[in-house]
Amino acid sequence: MLYYVKRFDTLQKIANRFNVSEQSIIKANVICDPNYLTPNTPLIIPDSNIDLPKSQGQPPYYIVQFRDTFLCLSKEFNTTVNNLVYMNRLNPNMIPTGYEILIGNYLQSPDELSKLWSDTGNYKCDELSEYQVHNIYYNGSFVWQALGNQSIPYLIELLNNPCDIVKYYSIVSLGRIGSSNNKVISNLTKLINYENELVSNAAKWALLRISLVRDHSKRMHVTTTESRIYDSPDLNSNSFSVPAGSPIMSLNWSIPSPTNEKNIFGETQLYDRVRFFTTGQDGYLPRVGFNEINAI
Q1: How far apart are CA 40 and CA 58, in angstroms?
Q2: pLDDT at 48 over 90
Q3: How far apart are CA 51 and CA 267, in angstroms?
Q4: Three-state secondary-structure class, residue 110
Q5: How does pLDDT run across 55-102, given as a tens digit for each residue?
Q6: CA angle (267, 113, 178) in 5-degree steps
Q7: What whole-number distance in Å separates Cα of residue 97 and Cα of residue 140?
Q8: What's 274's DSSP letter?
Q9: What value does the mean pLDDT of the chain take?
Q10: Which of 59, 61, 99, 270 has the highest count of CB atoms within 10 angstroms of its CB?
Q11: Is residue 106 pLDDT above 90, yes or no?
Q12: How far apart are CA 204 and CA 281, in angstroms?
């Protein structure tokens, strides 16, 4: 089940309330300091009959909590402190509470990635399977984000690739980086009237995301499909519809379905807890396909 931490809660109190061990709760969630729990944080209360992925511990993002440390998070996410610092361009001596960080294995040579994207698009565009698009382009968009501003010249060049899949994910990648670089803005603006509606819409969404990052923070994102936001991580709970291109703010990434709902590929359905920016409503946005976030 899912439990929201209340003021004055302790791990021991919660464990006793649900007749589970403190260690089992720690194992099911990202908890760096067992002596401090942030109020309103959703915790998975483990069920011995259900095997779930670690809550808030799955790529691509994580929201830093009070008393988190680089050392703790590197162990939680099976990476290194240096990787976390590099991918997120952070001061190694300080990790800011409330900051959204990349947590996946997203380090790769930009030359190699650019060649892979370009060659695959040139020769296999119409033959790509859903898995190939996910593995090469969706995952690759976070590699470009991890590389940061050095990605921009490569991505602007990739916008000229004849394959619309390459164009789309290059746009998405620029939106993920969130840079207000004049060349980025100019090239994305040109694509607003592109003949393929998915590409033209992506350009609008990426430009909106860049402006939201500039005016607010990297926790601001833009939905890329028409979606439903649910009251809880349960497809049977109450929900409301949000159109593609809707601004949302990330609250907690990667909450597994407590009842172990499955996605279309038989994996545990993951949800992201978000706030719908226009109305201030909170809810859970289900991931799509291979548990992909449907937002830039």
Answers
A1: 20
A2: no
A3: 11
A4: helix
A5: 999 999 999 999 999 999 999 999 999 999 999 999 999 899 999 999
A6: 80
A7: 27
A8: E
A9: 95
A10: 270
A11: yes
A12: 23
Counting other chains too, the contacts that 186-191 makes at CB distance below 8 Å and 24 or more residues apart are 187/156, 187/159, 191/159, 191/167
C-alpha angle 151/244/138, rounded to 5°?
35
Task: Tell me the one-letter amino acid at 179.
Answer: S
- Closest by CA to 231, choosing from 288, 285, 277, is 285
State the pLDDT at residue 122.
94
Residue 277 has a pLDDT of 84
Q: Which phi-psi region, left, alpha or beta, contains residue 178 (left: φ > 0; alpha: ψ -120 to 50)?
A: left
Give residues with Cβ within 8 angstroms of 54, minimum separation 6: 27, 28, 29, 30, 76
Helix (H/G/I), strand (E/B), else coil: 202 = helix
Residues 6 or more apart in contact with residue 14 via CB below 8 angstroms: 3, 5, 25, 37, 43, 45
Give the distance from CA 288 to its chain's centroid: 12
Name, in order, each residue with C-beta under 8 angstroms of 295's C-beta and a sequence gap of 6 or more. 221, 222, 223, 224, 248, 272, 285
pLDDT value of position 278: 83
